[in-house]
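Subject: design request, 80 residues
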């Protein structure tokens, strides 16, 4: 399979997370998943995805805050 690049999907609903990941994988993308905003930020540092799909309502850090924190990190500015 020819992969197109990495996508990080962050959602606290396991059904949404699984379904979204399966659709993206079937389309040839490398997919990393996380169930919380904190896990999403940690994984983003490890895999540096080209796209993050964030649920707005997440336990702890919500999707808006995850986005703000990711965009404010200097090492990611060139990526996103």
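Subject: RE: design request

Done. Sequence follows.
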């Amino acid at each position: 399979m020819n992969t197109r690049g990495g996508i990080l999907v962050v959602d606290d609903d396991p059904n949404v997370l699984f379904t979204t990941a399966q659709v993206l994988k079937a389309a040839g993308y490398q997919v990393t998943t996380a169930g919380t905003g904190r896990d999403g930020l940690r994984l983003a540092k490890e895999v540096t995805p080209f796209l993050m799909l964030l649920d707005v309502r997440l336990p702890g850090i919500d999707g808006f805050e995850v986005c703000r924190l990711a965009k404010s990190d200097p090492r990611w500015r060139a990526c996103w």
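The mean pLDDT is 89.
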